[in-house]
Every structure is written in structure tokens, then in C-alpha cells.
């Protein structure tokens, strides 16, 4: 298993250091790790739930709650690094009940671009399919296999027929990853656009954690 | 599920053929479903019986196994595609043979949302259950729903959304119906992955439907209630 496969399927345990735990989606582990290192945020520890929960958002609130309850005694505070992520407000309700903060906005695509500008653009861009760095690297695990496109490529247009383009939100400058994202777009029959976002609102949210 | 070795569909007895159709639906075998539908028609089955006893019964099993986590979206889509093949043969015949009509539904995905897999499954299962379905497709503004409801006078309005960002638009549509004083003329059903019962209640829908099978049962129940209420009002007026 590659480190990304582990983040997809198993997540990541905290290291047991720092006073604040960032409890995040595994899809954000690299980015959060990079921000912690770049900013010298020694007070922050990082634990991740399996990123593949992205595909079953119904399960996210209960998994977050279980993790908060399991870890809260060891930290002064827990910051949940999830946006709504398709939970229809249920994750917000869970976090409010537990008294922990989470990220504003609908999903990571929004906070990587900056939630306000993403939402402002949403009306003109609802035929876009988004990939981040992590999702590009894990395209097979998150898109191709769960949708059965490896076994039944003929289903592609039933899933993606109404989409126009794939927007690759690049958190880093990585030519090989850009080429992989372009290949993902080709495979889905979509136009390709690379949009450099960096870490967007994620950096600002973590700075408050 | 099905054993595909050398099964000659035309040689199967009716009961075995129906069982085989359920297996073929489960396995998403469109060509076999189409062949079996034609065989049963040649044997004198009514289109309605083929639809309900083979196709809908088979898709109900698919729906239950999807709900229970045994089947996943790709398998359901393949099954739906197979059912669609059978429906395409039966649909024109159903009208000719006077199959029972349960009611009419206008259904569409809301503005800003292009996801239609769930909506299409609901539409197909509703047709299978005897509802006439007017499918407005994706990305529907409130005007589109209103226009269709004015033109079609359905019993039911169905709205679908997959995104957290688009599901609030359902409330815009319902509020508009309220403003125009026509909210209670329709049964409003909503569905989609991020929704739940609480959301359905909060926006003023009649019911949230978790999946296509629930949508059909809910629609039948609400249409029956509506008919009972209208019959009661007529009786009261007459008395």
C-alpha cells in the first residue's frame, strides 16, 4: 500500500503531540502536514479518517463523533477539518452538539479555491467535475473503481454525460500530476482545466485552530 | 447470479422464464430481458403483467439489495438499463391495453444540479408502478416546474438534488407554490443523497424518499390519501 492508499482506506493516527488536534479527512493529510511544517504550528497534531468516506458522506458524522470522543481527553481542543462534504448539514449539527469547530462551506473544492469565490462562481460552473491533488493521485480508488468504470466503461456517459469539464484544482506545482489529471479528464470524456489554488482557505482555517 | 451456460429462454416454462428474467435484471443483461419480454408477449401475457410480475418485481429485489449494501451503484445502473430495454418494448403497448393508471408525476433535478441517476431510477420505478412520469431532466428553475405543472396537472411533484449547495433550491420551489396558493394542489416528494427527513419537513415537502422503492410506496400512499380526501369532500358536499 502506498501512503496515499493508507490515507484512503485507513486514515492516520495522531502522533500524540501538541494541544490541538486537527481531525481531518485523509484527503487533506499531505496539505495539512505541509502547512503545519511550513508555519511551525507545533501546537497542532493531526489525525485523519479514511479519505474514502468522501464516497459515503452519510457515514461521516458518526465517524467524526466517534473520533472526537475517543481523542478529546488527550487534547485541549479538537478542530474538525471537514466542510459539509455532502452530509446535508448533519456534520455541522454533530460538531455543534459536540462543541467542536469545523470548516465553513460545502466541501474541500470550495475551501481550496476560497469558499466565497467558489460559491460566487458555482452558478456558472455546475457542469464541472473537480479533482484535487489527492483525488488525482487516487483517481482509480475514488472514481473509476467505485463507479464500476473499470468493469463497465459503457456506464461513463450515464455518470458524466452532463458534465463539460474537469477542473484540476492544483495545490502544488507538479507537472506529472497535471498530466495525470489531464489523462483523467480524457478518460471521462471531459475538457481539461488546471486551476492553481494552493491551500486556499485551508491555511486560514488552520491558523485559527 | 444467473448461470449463463446454454439457457434457451424460449424453452423455459413461464414461471422459470420470469425467474430467469429476475436473474437477468439483477445481472444487467439487457438483450436477454428484451428477448424474454418478447417471448412472454408472444405467449399472450399482457404488457402489464410482464411489467409488474417480472420487471418491477426484479427491480424491487435490486432495490432491496442496493439498500442493504449487497449491490452498488454500477450494478443498479446496469439493472436499470436492462429494465429500460424491457420498458421500451412495453410502454407503447401498456397504453393500448389500458393498464391501470396510478397517477401522474412531474419530476426533475433542481437548478444548478446536473445529477440525474437517482431521479431517473425513481422515474423508471414510478412508471413501472403505473404512474405517468413527465421528466423535466436536470437544472430546473422554478419556472420550469411551474410551467410543467400548469400544463400537465400532475398529482405529484418530485424534486431531486445531489449537492448540499443545490438542495435548498427545493424550498424556493415550494415557497413559490405557497405564494401562488397552489401548494396543496400537489403532493411534493423530495430525494437525493444529502437530504433527510428533517430537511424534507423543514422545507415543507410532503415526504422525503430515501430511494426509488420508497418513492414508489410513498407516492402510492399519498395518492390514495388524496383520493380519499377528495371523495370525503365530495360526500360532504353531497350530504
TrEMBL record, chain A:
* Record's protein name: DUF1638 domain-containing protein
Q: Which InterPro entries match?
A: DUF1638
Species of provenance: Palleronia sediminis
The top of its lineage is: Bacteria, Pseudomonadati, Pseudomonadota, Alphaproteobacteria, Rhodobacterales
Q: Which residues form the DUF1638 domain?
A: 48-205
Automatic annotation (TrEMBL), chain B:
Q: State the UniProt keywords alphabetically.
A: Cobalt, Metal-binding
Tell me any Pfam family this protein matches.
B12-binding_2
- GO terms of biological process kind: homocysteine metabolic process; tetrahydrofolate metabolic process
Taxonomic source organism: Palleronia sediminis
Has the keyword Metal-binding been applied to this entry?
A: yes
Asked if the record carries the keyword Membrane, the reply is: no
Q: Which domain of life is it from?
A: Bacteria
InterPro entries associated with the record: Cbl-bd_cap, Cobalamin-bd, Cobalamin-bd_sf, Met_Synthase/Corrinoid, Meth_synthase_dom
Stated family: Belongs to the methylamine corrinoid protein family.
- Protein known as: Cobalamin-binding protein
Task: Give any Gene Ontology cellular component.
Answer: cytosol
Q: Which residues are in the B12-binding domain? A: 102-233
